[in-house]
Amino acid sequence: MSHWNPAPFAQQLLDLFASLLLLIAFAMLSQRRILTLIHLFAWQGLILTLSIADSAWLTHQPHLYYSAALTLIIKVLILPLLLHRLIRRLDVVWDVETLINIPTTMLVGIGLVVFSFNLALPISHFSSTILRNTLGIALASVLLSFMMMITRRKAVPQVIGFLALENGLFLAATSATYGMPMVVELGVALDVLVGMFIFGIFFFQIRETFDSLDIRHMEKLKEE
Amino acid sequence: MEIWVLLSFPLLGGLWLGATGQRAQAPLVNLLFSLATLGAAGFLAVRVLQEGRVSAWDEQFVVDPFNVFLVGLTAFVGMTTAWFSRSYVGNEVQHGRLSASRLRLYHGMYQAFLFTLLVALTTNNLGLLWVAMEAATLTTVLLVSLYRTPASLEAAWKYFILCGVGIAQALFGTILLYFAAEKVLGEGGNALLWTHLAQVKGQLEPTIVSLAFVFLLVGYGTKVGLAPLHNWLPDAHAEGPTPISAVLSGLLLNVALYAILRTKVLVDGALHQPFAGHLMMGFGVFSVAVAALFLMRQKDIKRLFAYSSIEHMGLMTFAFGMGGAVANFAGLLHMTMHSLTKSAIFFAVGHASQKSGTQLMTQIRGLIRTSPTIGWGLLLGALAILGMPPFGVFASEFLILTTAMHEQPWATPILLGALGVAFAAIFGKVQPMVFGPATGQRLPHPPAILPVFLHLTLVLILGLYLPPVLATWYRQAAALLG
């Protein structure tokens, strides 16, 4: 053994990051406090950043470093800070949401994970990249965030679910391919930021009109 | 060069009006910017007609006969809607429903929306197409909630969340497509360029591409308003300002369908079997049927025509799903006819509901007496959208149905039945609104009648005679769709 080869280690680290991301997706699904939810979201962003940086190092793709930096700035710093300021100004920092049936939600979540792994299996075979294991996890965290959006009755957690969904998509982009072209990634980041501002404006409009951020008040438009 | 000019007008307009949109002349400035955009689109169309294809920025933007026709349509309807919007906004301000800051938001976002649509249409990069589609949602979401009523906030929230989630599926589909393309084209920006992908479509991995198409169809299909993903559409159309309903129905739905069609070409090339076509036909027929059933139960006039849009988008999706030269030709023709007719209807509906002070159809009565032009506009528009000859919608629907009888006989009875139900529902509701005893008051601003009749005249002319230039153009575009 002449020298230690770090590549397998970095490879395993990638799998570790991916599974941590999935774990956080589950934690978000069952988290009732808004503040903790934001912290979890920031952690998920950080893990995504590390995972992208790790794959950049593994594949020697310099543009992935930019992508990691972009994720760090937007997903770990700007978005959580914005969310923090928002919930402080909306005065919902200590809001606790009543979630019914957490065990059932978790079980359905596990079902989703199994489903995504099955869906990703035939595709992963074609992956020439060393990151093939993570595609299933990425799809699973997309679906879990999707489910979180469905089960929540308040506006802020729904939006956090939406942002977490974007995290899952970014993991998919870096795991299936070596990241999207830079111009696309910048465009997506811009959309996410603008979207966040619009969500912020919305929160205030909703509260002004309904005196609460509970979206139960917004189920009037139906076909009778 | 022409592409840059085309894109710069709405972008500059958005910035300019975002700063000064509350001024008294802002509606006029909005119209002038839209006119300039239409002019630029005209120049671009002439060049594409001469050269076949125009590209810019290392092929990141490419305009061919298929998208130039949609660029032209978008710029035209964008212009006439800005025209209608002048009178509509004037009346709303008089009624005290719009404050200065909301006017600024409205005008700025209107131009920004046109900008995102034109970027989505002209870009050759499927990733940028996604970015522009998402940006189109972002620009319109605050317009849907412009009146800040509880119902409009709910509609906007639903629109934002549903389209956001939908479009996230489309991003996953785009990622999968990139994944398949990268193996053939290598890494880097070129692997998402449609023209490059179209050259190597036969070598793309079928499993990945078909999965990618499912995600793309569900994602962009949400924006097209395909059932069962259509929930946001009637609410967003009904609660927002009427000019926005007109551009959502007439333009946004088309552009979303355009995104699906571009990817369908790639999938067909990779799979050598009509997988994408079957999916689209299924969604299309289902949307037509669902929309027809819901049409009967509507009370709100804008919801009624929103469901009619779902029906027609379903019909187009079905036509493109069948594929082949005739069906694609019919689909493109129907796209044009539906855009023109539906926006004309929304112009008439906007004035009618401003006059009556309500969108409830039971309270809109006797339009033909209080304002004959709006009444006739609504009546003729409704007849045109229901596929009455000699309007153009008849020609395109006839082509779609005859092709369906030939190639997909199973679908014909469903489509015919749904069209019949839609006829009974819409005509039965429009007739008493136009005739019957008069209600309603005079509008402080004269209604913009010209755009309504300009659109309807175009639909009538195209129904009677399709100029050879236009026919060749449609044929070239249909050929690009395979």
Automatic annotation (TrEMBL), chain A:
A GO term, aspect molecular function: oxidoreductase activity
Subcellular location: Cell membrane
Species whose genome carries this gene: Ferrovum myxofaciens
Cellular component terms per the entry's GO annotation: plasma membrane
Name this polypeptide is given: Hydrogenase-4 component E
EC number: 1.-.-.-
Annotated membrane topology: Multi-pass membrane protein
Regions that span the bilayer: 12-30, 37-58, 64-83, 104-124, 130-150, 162-180, 186-206
Main location: membrane
EC category name: oxidoreductase
Keywords from the UniProt entry: Cell membrane, Membrane, Oxidoreductase, Transmembrane, Transmembrane helix
UniProtKB/TrEMBL annotation, chain B:
Subcellular location per the Swiss-Prot or TrEMBL entry: Cell membrane; Membrane
Biological process annotations from GO: ATP synthesis coupled electron transport
Organism the protein comes from: Ferrovum myxofaciens
Keywords, ordered alphabetically: Cell membrane, Membrane, Oxidoreductase, Transmembrane, Transmembrane helix
Gene giving rise to this polypeptide: mrpD
Pfam family, one: Proton_antipo_M
Record-level GO cellular component terms: plasma membrane
Membrane topology category: Multi-pass membrane protein
Highest taxon, organism lineage: Bacteria
Protein name from the UniProt record: Hydrogenase 4 subunit F
Residue ranges constituting the NADH:quinone oxidoreductase/Mrp antiporter transmembrane domain according to the UniProt record: 124-414
Transmembrane segments: 31-49, 61-84, 104-121, 128-147, 159-181, 202-222, 242-263, 275-295, 315-333, 374-395, 410-427, 448-466
Main localization (coarse): membrane
Presence of keyword DNA-binding: no
MF terms (GO), sorted A to Z: NADH dehydrogenase (ubiquinone) activity; oxidoreductase activity
